[in-house]
Design brief:
- By secondary structure, this protein is an all-beta fold.
- It has a single domain, classed as TolB, C-terminal domain (Neuraminidase).
- The protein has one helix and 28 strands.
- Strands 1-2-3-4 form a four-stranded antiparallel β-sheet, with no helix packed on it.
- Strand 3 and strand 4 form a beta hairpin.
- The longest helix has 4 residues, at about 5-10.
- It starts with 5 loop residues before the first helix and ends with a strand.
Length: about 280
């Protein structure tokens, strides 16, 4: 059981869906709120600036925007607890383990149990955009020109996947989608074994998030507005007109931070309708 989609986590984890609830980093001081997918049942969960939201069982795990430590709080807002004392990024909650990039140890990958016990270092590479898929962790290696690597969750079997300077990696089944900085931040895909490398589009693309048959991304060539394109490279379409960061997909909604409104959280439907503040 995982706490959020990989595409959301590599884009700040500002929204997560579990069953018919969406948990999100709100317009209200970056606190976590929840709302039903039908728009009912709006409730505040915590009072902390929150990132990397993961929902597993009855708990919400998140990174505090103040300390960067991992916390958890129950889905009814009770029982808030601190999990660790590491500055933690790209938090992946998988079952009873949390994987993260530890800024206190040069962004190496660590893991810890969801109750705060059993802290372990997994690798010795400076790692970004970490994505845990079953017993493998995919990441970009900061000291090897951000090429994509993978390693087993027990720290064994380290291998390099590609030779492109990569960011915003999305692992979807047997494919990795990524922004290729060696080719002007265009979207590429490659098989998880390193074969079948292909270019998807010709726009500069940041913040990519793959959901279903679509890739959502911010387009620096058009003021960081949100676009979407099918995974086969067809149907490129603009979604909004805001300078947008941290694209997250939850249900039929795109959650993002709107630079035109002091980085506050907004949401818009995946078809481009219904733009509103995420209060």
């Amino acid at each position: 059981m995982t706490g959020n989609s990989l595409g959301n986590i590599i884009n700040g984890g500002i929204a997560a869906q579990k069953e018919d609830w969406i948990y999100y980093r709100s317009y209200d001081g970056e606190k976590i709120y929840k709302i039903r997918t039908d728009g009912n049942g709006h409730e505040k969960i915590n009072n902390d600036s929150s990132w990397d939201i993961n929902v597993v069982g009855d708990w919400i795990y998140y990174r505090s925007g103040n300390s960067f430590f991992i916390y958890r709080v129950k889905i009814d807002g009770s029982g808030c607890e601190k999990i660790n004392d590491d500055q933690s990024f790209f938090i992946n909650v998988v079952g009873d383990l949390i994987y993260y990039s530890n800024a206190n140890d040069s962004y190496k990958i660590y893991r810890i149990r969801t109750d705060g016990s059993g802290r372990e270092k997994v690798n010795d590479d400076r790692s970004k955009f970490i994505s845990v898929v079953e017993d493998l962790i995919y990441y970009t290696h900061l000291d090897d020109s951000r090429k994509i690597y993978r390693i087993r969750t027990d720290g064994s079997g380290r291998e390099k996947i590609n030779d492109d300077k990569s960011s915003f990696i999305n692992v979807v089944e047997d494919l990795i989608y990524y922004s290729n900085d060696d080719d002007g931040e265009k979207i590429y895909k490659i098989r998880i074994d390193g074969s079948g490398r292909e270019k998807i589009n010709n726009n500069k693309s940041r913040g990519i998030n793959v959901a279903g048959d679509w890739i959502y991304y911010q387009n620096p060539d058009d003021g960081e507005k949100i676009y979407k394109i099918r995974i086969d490279g067809s149907g490129n379409k603009k979604i909004n007109d805001d300078l947008s960061w941290d694209i997250n997909i939850a249900g039929d909604w795109i959650y993002y931070r709107n630079t035109f409104d002091v980085w506050k959280t907004y949401k818009i439907r995946t078809d481009g309708s219904g733009k509103q503040r995420a209060d």
